[in-house]
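Hello again, I could really use a second opinion on something today. I've been staring at a protein lately and its backbone has me curious. Can you walk me through what the tokens say about the fold? Take your time with it, there's no hurry, and the full record follows here:
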Amino acid sequence: MRTPRIVLVITVLAMWLILSWYTESLNPAESAARLASELAEWADEMRLSSATVTDDGVQESPQELAGQAAATLGAPVTIEEYTLARMVACESTSAAKGGNDEEKEAIVWVALNDANANNGGNIVACVTGGHGYGHQGSLRKYATALNDPTGHHLQIVRDCMTGRVPDPTGGATHFLHRLGFKSRDGYLAAVTKWTGYGWQNVGLDVGTSLEVWT
């Protein structure tokens, strides 16, 4: 039986902190606090899966990748949780470009609202269009190909799904990134198209180029 990666990491960190206790004169309470801090930081950054991505999309099924995430954590991860975590990992602005948790939470909530409004609450069908994970386009309205999610993405998803983080979008069901377009004309064309559908920009400011629409 394969040992979950998180168990191995906890074991290594615990051994390291025990050694630090003796070599740096840390008391047990300091060692425990340091271990908790190291584990929290590691879990946030830990990649939960390793997908094979081609021009056609992700080769593994949602079930297989959710299984990888569960094996990594040594704890259950639902397909819905994994799907949203993968989507937000692909759709959110990178930290290097100013991305933040508020943006990620808004993206998760848009997908949840979209699933409830247009897919009978079926999150996986809403995000993947019934075609598995892959590149955004005619088959899928959300990108789910390029980035494997981390523990931090999963925690944000769980906080939203349980209501710990309330919906900041006012029920929005669509989003776009102004800076995601190749030109301003492309962005303005999208705005004109969406306005023609009767959709409105909610005006949510999360400190990035994200716009949420309803």
